[in-house]
Structure formats: structure tokens, C-alpha cells
């Protein structure tokens, strides 16, 4: 749990200091968004390889080596002297985080008997949820006191404690397979190519360097690599990503909701700190504290949502959560520099309440219709789709923000007060992005409603 908490904390803690990074390196939000997008994309890609690393080297060696590398690249990020070094360190951080995060669940399933796994998973879920809850506030405090570089060092005590405990506490996991399984290098290569085309294309669009031919190449490359990856995985007897799980219509619906969940969760944690620092003029610490009440509410409400999921069909709870999150960001679409701190905090808390409702119901409803042998693959695919949604959503929202800002600046170009005109254009652009987040969650209501069939057929 120490390692998992560290990597989950690192996922969003940087978002609250993005404004300071932009200022120090003199770059725009199109470049700095790669600190979030690159991490999430790399995490999505390598998360599918964890099972192979465990089979080949065992949990203890995989965990120890991965955590050591995570410490090294965290230090490299903290001491980076250019934006390119910083982005590279975040990408490597994300790649290692993708390997580490599932290890705690694997170990807990091995250690705890079936009758105690519910309590173990509750502790695991609470740790995973509390990390992003306290992360922005902690990042804001450290950023205010010591500068943005401090957020790269905050996870080091957890990592070092994990490295100290691993040799003794993970002693039962020291072995790997006697015969090392074949690594799916082609599958990983095709997946990385797919992610590169998607996210690279969005990045080029932000720089306005994407011609019509370039756009056609990006679309063709994305479709070709995606189709080739699916075809390759279907041919393998032990795929790292099994597309067959999507034949189940309920799982496919849950995956669509999971994608929207990733877009909303990671996209909002990217947008909100930028909004309150750029438009509202909040300090980095105040921006972090703004997210704290909602994060704590999320952690407190998840156990209740789990009990509701046990008693009621998942589709009711998932749709209620989607509606709460959509309403939260449709309210945000009316925000301005004059919006009160506590009103913003209440809107964020409403969205986090929606996420708390969704998480247990979505996870439970997604895999109930799958055969026993496909549940592990289904859980891995759902996590992958959620991370992919986060990477895609962050890039897309960054592109929409830049596009709408330029559009609104053009509309207000004739304004006498240039400073007020620029602030108004930026406010309208952020509001447009909040509407996009709200619409994404509203569009997920239809697949969310279809998750009910799992409960109806299996109970």
C-alpha cells in the first residue's frame, strides 16, 4: 500500500503547480499539459504488463526494482532544468506507476483468504481514494512554501519506507516462474504507437501545426495501430489485453462509463487548479485547499456507496453519480473571477460525491456478467480504459481550452480595456471546457443505464 499510495499521489499532485511551472519555464498550457497527459498515457500502457512482470520475476523483485526507479525519476523531475526534462521524467514516472499500482491488489488477494478480501479491498480502495484527496492540498502547501519542485519529493518517504519493508514483508513473493513467459513486445509496441498517434495528434493541433494531410495521417495511423493491436491480441493465447471481454454488452457499457469517468476525473483535476489560479487569482496553496473538502467527501462516501451497491442494481447508482458530476461542472460553467471560494468548493464536492457513488457500482457491475476466467482480464481492461480516458480527456480539454480562448479573444479584440478583455476571454474558454466535461458525463447516462442487466441476470 505504501507503493500504491505513492504512485497514486504522484498522479494528480503536480496539477496544482502547473501554473507555476508555466511561469518558470515560459511555456503555455499546451506544453505543460504533457506533465499530466504523458504520465496517464504511460501508466495506461504499462499497467497491462504488470501480470507478466509478476509471472516472470515475482511480486517482490518487481515491486523493489520498480519503486527504486520511481524514486530515481522523481528526483530527476525535482531537479529538472528544462521543460523537456520535466516532461520526460513524468512519462517515465507514469510508466513505472502503471506497473506498481496493481501490485498491491495482487498481493492482497494472495495474502487474505476469500472471506477477508472484502475488508482488504476496502482498505485498498480507501488508500487509493485518499491519495488524490489530500494530494492537491499537500501539493499546494509545498508549492507555496518551497516551490513547485517540492511536489516531486513528497512521495519519497513513502517509497523509501516501502523499499525498507519489501525484503521482509514481501518475502513470500520472492519467486517468479521457473520458465519465463514470453513478453508481448509487439502488443506493447502497437499500443504505444496508438497512444502516440492520438495524443501526439492532439498536441500538434494545439500548436496549430496540423495540416489537412497531417490530420489525415493522424486519423489513419490511430485507426491502423488500434486495429492492429486488437487483431494481435486476439491471436494470442495469453493476451495482456483481451478484447473478447467487450463482447459482453454490459461490460462494454461499463467500459464506456469508465472512459467518461477518466475524462471527467483527470480532466477536471487538470482544469480546476488552472482556472482558479489563472482567473480567480488563487495562490497555489489556496488552489490545493479548494480540492480538499471534495476529496475527503469522496473518501467518506465510498463505503456507503459500496453498501448501496450490495442492495440495489448498479445502474441506479452509476447514473445518479453521473448526474451529480455533470451538474457539478455545468454549475462551474457559470464561474468567474468573482465566484466565492466556498461556492467553488461545494461544486467540486458535488462532483466528488458523484464519483464516490460511481466507483463501487461501476466496478461491481462491470464484471458480474463475465465468465470466471475473464474477470481478471475484465478488471484490467476497465482500469486501462479509465486511464486512457484520463490521458485523452486531458489532451482534448487542453486543446479545447486553447481553441476557445483564441476564439473569444478574437470576438473581444475591439474592447477598449485589453486586460479585462483577455481575462473575459480566458474565463469564457474555461467555462466552455466545463460544459464539455458536463456533457461527457451526461452522454454516459445511456451506457450507465445498461449496466442494470448484469444485476438482473446474475442475482
UniProtKB/TrEMBL annotation:
Alphabetic keyword roster: Cell membrane, Membrane, Transmembrane, Transmembrane helix, Transport
Gene3D superfamilies attached to this UniProt entry: MFS general substrate transporter like domains (1.20.1250.20), Multidrug resistance protein D (1.20.1720.10)
The organism's place on the tree of life at top rank: Bacteria
Protein name: DHA2 family efflux MFS transporter permease subunit
Localization in the cell: Cell membrane
NCBIfam families reported in the protein's UniProt record: efflux_EmrB
UniProt domain Major facilitator superfamily (MFS) profile: residue ranges: 1-450
Membrane spanning stretches: 34-54, 63-81, 87-109, 121-142, 148-166, 187-206, 212-232, 253-276, 282-304, 316-335, 341-363, 384-405, 425-446
Keyword Transmembrane on entry: yes
Membrane topology category: Multi-pass membrane protein
Pfam families recorded: MFS_1 (PF07690)
Source species taxonomy: Bacteria, Pseudomonadati, Pseudomonadota, Betaproteobacteria, Rhodocyclales
Entries under InterPro entries matching the protein: EmrB-like, MFS, MFS_dom, MFS_trans_sf
Family the UniProt entry places it in: Belongs to the major facilitator superfamily. EmrB family.
